[in-house]
Amino acid sequence: MSDSTSKVVLYSYFRSTCSARVRIALNYKRIQYTQTHINLLEKKNKTCEYANKSPTQFVPLLEIDGLDLIESAAILEYLEETRPEPALLPKEPAQRAKVRVIMSIIGCGIQPLQNNSQLALYPAEARAERAATVIRNGFSGLEKYLSKVSGLYSVGSQLSIADVYLYPMCHAAQRYNVQIEDYPTIFRIFHELSLLEPFINGAWFMQEDCPDELKQA
Ligand SMILES: N[C@@H](CCC(=O)N[C@@H](CS)C(=O)NCC(=O)O)C(=O)O
């Protein structure tokens, strides 16, 4: 591969849970990358320059293999298909389906309902509670599902994309004062993931664009 196609660049925002998913997978697969920070609070995702790269104007976007990939699920599946080791999907179809159920519960049923553009539909003073309600509603079903399919991690004892989705979602829950302890299986897996370097290094508080005052809070 030439230099220009081997360079991997993640367009991300420190607090974006979808960006964290991709950071964690890149870390876990030991893929070297740099980040271009897109400040969502300053609406840098709405600039013409970013619109030219990302049709949806969301983060993350991953420049890899000469492609501009968007949508975290598609990015993670691409990484798995092109860089399968170490694996983030189990080999057996039934186990893979369980991973994709969790991806879907979080990625379709929770995260989109509490992202910036959705919360902006509510008065400023109601946004945090709206986000917390969405997360609590989603976590109650997720907890029941995880209690059936989890082992040490979300699906059995192998780390998977399900964990890559779960860890940042738990950080969003904490941000909105959702008591993760109320969901014992989620809490237990979150604790396990919090011990792992690829997850810690992908977390919001480890990012260069995270303001110091938030790191210390
Ligand atoms: N389905 C997309 C969702 C991406 C998404 O919602 N990104 C958020 C940050 S986590 C974003 O860019 N929000 C900007 C906005 O709402 O204007 C994915 O999984 O990548």
What can you tell me about this protein's structure?
One of its GO terms (molecular function) is glutathione transferase activity. It comes from Smittium simulii. Residues 6-87 form the GST N-terminal domain. Helix 2 (17-28) packs parallel to helix 4 and helix 2 runs antiparallel to helix 8 (161-175). The longest helix has 23 residues, at 127-149. The protein has helices at residues 3-6, 17-28, 48-53, 72-82, 93-109, 116-119, 127-149, 161-175, 184-193, 197-202, 212-216; strands spanning 9-12, 34-37, 61-64, 67-70. Strands 2-1-3-4 form a four-stranded mixed beta sheet, with helices on one face. The chain is globular. Helices cover 52% and strands 7% of the residues. Glutathione binds next to helix 2, helix 4 and helix 6.
How far the N terminus sits from the C terminus, by CA atoms, comes to 43 Å
Q: Identify every distinct bound molecule in the structure, by name, code or SMILES.
A: glutathione
The CATH topology name of the largest domain reads: Glutathione S-transferase Yfyf (Class Pi), Chain A, domain 2
Structural class: alpha+beta
CATH class of the largest domain: Mainly Alpha
How are the strands of the largest sheet arranged?
Answer: 2-1-3-4
Mean pLDDT: 96
The largest sheet is:
4 strands, mixed
Residues in helices, as a percent range: 40-55%
Structure summary, number of beta strands:
4
Q: Count the DSSP helices.
A: 11
